[in-house]
Amino acid sequence: MDGPAIETLLDAAFGPARHALPSYFLRDGIDPVAELCFVAQQRGVIVGTIRYWPLAIPGARSALLLGPIAVDAAHGDLGIGSRLIEHSLSAARARGHDAVAAIGAAGYLGRFGFHPALEFALEFPAAVAADRFHALELIPNALRGGGGMLARSSG
User: 3-152 — its CATH code?
Assistant: First the structure.
């Protein structure tokens, strides 16, 4: 099972206190969306991982929370993270999900079409800097005219 290797990679990327990060408020006690969780391997060793979680976004029919995404530091300049995001967003779109929320760097997430969540009048239920809270419409206008607080969802 890859679980221990993934947890080790996530601890290395975010530190042992990662479970106290704001995004875990929406993940804790909920299973990830298994068909959208991927790993990147090199010579049989996991060097990258991405996960998605069910999320309730006002106005969205089927929303997701992206993250965590992590790449082993020794493989950080190979585009692994970008490929994981592109592949998983394509899979999410193909499975009928209409929106994704994420916490991260604007410059990085913007490369994949994410916009500041404030553009959609979305609010995060824990303290998150506005410039790190983003959303992406997988279906055009999925978040237009909605707005409000993100909430936990069991899928």
Answer: 3.40.630.30
